[in-house]
Amino acid sequence: MLRFMTAGESHGPCITAVLDGFPAGVPVDAERINRELARRQMGYGRGRRMAIEKDQVEIRSGVRWGETMGSPITLVIENQDWKNWERQMSPLAQDSGQAKPVTRPRPGHADLAGALKFGHRDVRNVLERASARETVARVAVGALAKCLLEHFGVFVGGWVAEIGGVVASTEGLDFPELLARAERSKVRMPDPQAEEEVVELIDRCAKEGDTLGGVVETRATGLPPGLGSHTQWDRKLDGRLAQAVMSVQSVKGVEIGLGFGAARKRGSEVHDEIGFDSETREFIRHSNNAGGTEGGMTSGAPVVVRAALKPISTLMRPLRSVDLVTKEEVKAAIERSDVCAVPAGAVIVEAVVAFTLGQAFLEKFGGDSLVEIRRNYEGYLRQVREF
Question: Which of 31, 148, 177, 191 could potentially form a cystine with 168 if both were Cys, beta carbons 3.0 to 4.6 Å apart?
Answer without folding.
Answer: 191
